[in-house]
Design goal:
This protein has 431 residues and is α+β, with helices and mostly antiparallel strands. It contains 17 helices and 8 strands.
Length: 431
């Protein structure tokens, strides 16, 4: 593999496989509020959070970690301001104390302390936090990435130091080099010493929260339901471990996860399903690592065509990555890996994202179920044909068609999902 392309894959993994505490959207709000508070230099007397609809959608229904069961923009922002340690990035809520929780509830009870508004003129990942205290003000904005600060102001004056104006631009260019063929080649030939530390952390964190989800009473207990209903069959555990990790994460577990494509749920999906599959078929540790490279990078490759947040459920792109890894670990050909990916996208490529909440675990289970069927079909030489719906001539064209549908075609769907969630629509079809 050309050195430039090889290095790009390594750097993409380094930028994507990050540790985060809880759902990444509340974490992004908390991080932005923490930075604004740091710039202000004191605890705000008043706050305002202006964010994109997708941020609101993904914060509305999920429990904010370490909040004592609270949901929404306000507790995430207020707790971030109370911790005020932006250097912790997406693990910032790990620093919340009992005193912080008590103070947050007190501030939330104050009328107008933390105002939340929707920003309709920005991209899908946008958070702006403005804070005021003792005659001073500060404002911080993140765009396109959960920790990518693009503006810092104090008292109306721009502060340039520490502002990452184009952070992620180089990685975006590197992602243009990605292809399913290149991902498979990288996974087969990669010097594992270059990536093992990333994969070890991913395995440790994501497997741990999966096991926790199976033991505890989190959310709707999708993972536990699967094992209680269908037993301990290997393919059941492949689904259950991924779903259970989401059960715990969506219910506010303070255990960290390693994300993929900006999402903890996607990170859990591409990890736990593959490690359980590898364990179940007796794959070697080296094979497991290489399978994880395929699942991670295929998910990232598909998601780059869609964008970080949209109406397209990211569990589907993660499931497609997992399906490709199942084929690889089973000794399938490169063409069969591509066919498995096509099969998943042809099956459940229209699943919508209606925010982060307990049903994400069920969507993960459904995506992994599709991944298992798609892998079995591909290994048997079966698959969906070009011209059937959004399935195109090859795997790359199919990924592009699904990406266009998720990025462009589902844009209005995304808007309407938010309006329905906020109660802004009359849902009676007969009026």
């Amino acid at each position: 593999m050309e050195a430039k392309v090889y290095d790009a894959y390594v750097q993409i993994l380094e930028s994507e496989l990050l540790k985060a505490l809880g759902c990444t959207e509340p974490g992004a709000v908390a991080f932005t509020a923490a930075k604004a508070t740091e710039v202000l230099g004191k605890m705000p007397e008043r706050m305002e959070v202006n964010s994109s609809g997708n941020i609101i959608k993904n914060v509305k229904g999920v429990i904010v970690p370490n909040s004592g069961g609270l949901r929404g923009i306000a507790p995430a922002a207020i707790l971030g301001a109370l911790v005020a340690k932006p250097e912790l990035e997406l693990e910032i809520l790990e620093g919340v104390t009992d005193a912080d929780r008590a103070k947050a509830k007190e501030l939330m009870a104050q009328d107008g302390y933390c105002k939340s508004t929707v920003e309709e003129g920005e991209g899908n990942l946008y958070v702006e936090v403005a804070v005021w205290a003792a005659g001073d003000s500060a404002r911080v904005i993140i765009r396109n990435n959960h920790t990518n600060i693009t503006l810092i102001e104090k008292n109306g004056e721009s502060l340039q130091s520490g502002v990452a104006q184009n952070e992620g631009a180089d990685i975006a260019e590197m992602k243009k080099l990605m292809s399913v063929e290149g991902i498979i080649e990288f996974a087969k030939t990669c010097n594992l010493d270059d990536v093992k530390h990333l994969l070890d952390q991913q395995i440790e964190c994501n497997n741990a929260i999966g096991e926790e989800g199976l033991k505890g009473g989190y959310g709707a207990e999708v993972g536990k339901t699967l094992t209680e209903t269908y037993g301990d069959d290997m393919l059941v555990k492949v689904k259950a471990m991924a779903a259970a990790g989401s059960d715990a994460r969506m219910a506010g577990s303070v255990m960290p996860v390693v994300i993929n494509s900006g999402s903890g749920n996607q990170g859990i999906t591409v990890t736990n399903s593959v490690t359980e599959f590898a364990k179940g078929i007796g794959a070697s540790e080296e094979q497991m690592y290489r399978g994880l490279l395929i699942s991670n990078l295929i998910s990232i490759h598909i998601k780059k065509h869609i964008g970080p947040l949209s109406a397209f459920c990211g569990a589907v792109s993660a499931g497609a990555g997992a399906s490709g890894a199942f084929v690889f670990l089973s000794g399938g050909s490169d063409d069969q890996i591509g066919q498995a990916i096509i099969n998943v996208l042809g099956d459940c490529g229209g699943m919508v994202c209606d925010g982060a909440k307990s049903s994400c675990a069920a969507k993960i289970a459904s995506s992994i179920d599709a991944a298992i069927m798609s892998y079995k079909m591909a290994m048997a030489g079966r698959g969906f044909e070009p011209g059937e719906g959004l399935v195109m001539d090859d795997v790359e064209e199919t990924i592009r068609s699904i990406g266009y549908m998720g990025r462009v075609g589902m844009k209005e769907t995304d808007v309407e999902i938010l309006h329905v969630m906020l109660g802004d629509r009359d849902l009676d079809p007969y009026k």
